[in-house]
C-alpha cells in the first residue's frame, strides 16, 4: 500500500517518542556503541511491526511495548506537562504517566498500517554534551527520504531515548502542545485532563 504521508504528517502521526523536561546533565557512561545498539533495536522492532501485517489492534499493542521498553517514559511524561509538572501531585503524575503511555500507543500505533512498504535505517551516532544523537533515515513510499534523529541518555540508569527530531522538529515539543491544549480546555484541572487523555488518541 502506498503511503501518502507528508513529512509533517509523519511528525505528528508517526512515531511519537517524545520528551525531556530538562536536558540530561552529568557525565554519562553511555558510549556511541551503546546508543547505536539501543536505536538499532528500536528501529528493528518498528520495522518488524510495519511489515507484520497485523490488524490495527495488534499494532497498537506492539507500539506500546516498544515505547515502554525503549523510551524514558517517566521523563517524557513530565516533559510533556512542561511548567505544569511543578504543580501536579505525585499521585496525579503517576496517573498521568499511565494515561499518557496508553494515549501514545493509541494515537500512533493505529497509524502503522500507513507505513507498510517503508523502513528506517540507522546511519551514524555522536556524543552531544551529555547525551548521544543517533541519526537515521526514514524511507516511506511516495516520499523523499528524510532524517530522523534519536536523542539517547542513560540518566534513568538504563540506555533510553528521550526525544526524536525529524527535520529539525522535536516530537517532544509537538506532544507538549497537544497535552497543554487538553489541560487548557479543562482550565488547568489535572484530573479532568487525565480522564480526557485516557479516551484520546
Automatic annotation (TrEMBL):
Which PROSITE patterns does this entry report, sorted A to Z? TAT
Transmembrane ranges? Answer: none
User: Which source organism?
Assistant: Roseovarius marisflavi
Please identify the protein, giving its name as recorded.
Answer: Phospholipid transport system substrate-binding protein
Lineage of the organism: Bacteria, Pseudomonadati, Pseudomonadota, Alphaproteobacteria, Rhodobacterales
Amino acid at each position: 500500500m502506498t503511503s501518502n504521508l507528508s513529512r509533517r504528517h509523519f511528525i505528528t502521526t508517526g512515531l511519537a517518542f517524545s520528551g525531556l523536561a530538562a536536558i540530561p546533565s552529568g557525565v554519562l557512561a553511555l558510549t556511541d556503541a551503546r546508543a547505536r545498539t539501543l536505536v538499532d533495536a528500536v528501529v528493528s522492532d518498528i520495522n518488524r511491526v510495519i511489515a507484520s501485517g497485523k490488524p490495527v489492534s495488534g499494532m497498537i499493542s506492539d507500539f506500546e511495548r516498544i515505547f515502554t521498553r525503549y523510551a524514558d517514559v517517566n521523563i517524557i511524561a513530565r516533559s510533556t506537562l512542561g511548567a505544569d509538572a511543578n504543580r501536579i501531585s505525585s499521585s496525579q503524575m503517576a496517573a498521568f504517566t499511565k494515561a499518557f503511555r496508553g494515549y501514545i500507543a493509541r494515537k500512533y500505533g493505529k497509524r502503522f498500517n500507513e507505513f507498510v512498504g517503508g523502513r528506517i535505517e540507522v546511519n551514524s551516532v555522536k556524543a552531544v554534551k551529555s547525551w548521544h544523537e543517533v541519526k537515521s533515515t526514514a524511507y516511506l513510499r511516495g516520499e523523499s527520504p528524510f532524517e530522523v534523529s534519536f536523542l539517547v541518555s542513560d540518566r534513568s540508569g538504563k540506555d533510553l531515548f528521550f526525544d526524536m527530531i525529524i527535520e529539525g522538529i522535536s516530537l517532544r515539543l509537538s506532544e507538549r502542545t497537544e497535552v497543554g491544549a487538553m489541560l487548557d480546555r479543562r482550565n488547568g484541572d489535572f484530573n479532568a485532563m487525565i480522564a480526557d487523555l485516557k479516551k484520546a488518541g
